[in-house]
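Long-time lurker, finally posting.

We've been working with DUF1311 domain-containing protein (Stenotrophomonas lactitubi) and I want a structural starting point before designing mutants. I don't trust myself to interpret raw outputs, so I'm hoping someone here can both generate the structure tokens and explain anything notable. Sequence follows.
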Amino acid sequence: MNILALILTSTNLIHIFTTGPEFVRENPNNFHCNQPDVIAKAVEKVRSEARDRMYVEGLSQLSTPRRSTDDLEELVDSIPIDLRVTQTKASESAFALIECEATIEFEIPDHTMNVIRRDQRSKDVTTRGHAQLTDKGIFWGNFRFGVEFDGRRPTIVELSGLQFPQVLLSTIAITIADSDIILERRLAMVAADFYIVDRDLNSFWRALSTQQRLRMRRSQREWIVEKVRTCSDVDGKGYESLTIVEKIDVLNCHRRMTEERLTRLYN
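Top reply, 14 upvotes:
Generated this for you. Predicted structure of DUF1311 domain-containing protein:
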């Protein structure tokens, strides 16, 4: 390649990187994303991504009682989705002619919303830090998808790069399918968090000198009594009779107070 050709090639590449390929700047026939067929295709794209995600995660093998893949797909397809276009613009992506911005809301049964609302970590996982809980379900305010044209027919080619509504949808499907199993897994995580900080407190106590332990023994015993009074006893029969949600609350209380105690001792 001679120097002139190299310069021309470099110039073209710079132009593409800075302005995008020329074809993405066109809007065929002043196309708008709010066409009913486009909205329907975008919703189906979301459902398709969710189904694909469930295959990858092997959710049918994790469900108890065991649910078939067909059952989980039916759950995905049964969730009402409300997609509303807010803007149509020329895409800066090499994969689409048009970029559509929209809001999207998943309607979730009340019992599932109760599972999500009463547990902060489940809420965080479900909303992915971007979505919002509403009275009806989960609301995503900045959903984007790309459109290209096969002949004159629009085709959905990509969903938002940094936001994954398909993961959100599959999470909801799991919760609907097996809310008790989700809670049991959450209980195991909360228990692990508590026992780690409890182990750290015991290690700290053992590292103290005999004189330090004697001086602090009274306050430590008073703190233990207060912790059990506030959070209830995790070792007694009463704990075993609690529901999963109540056990999660008890362990979270113990973890929080133990962390506070450990911080105070360190200081």
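Before you design anything, note these points.
The two ends are 69 Å apart (CA to CA).
The chain has two domains: 22-177, 184-266.
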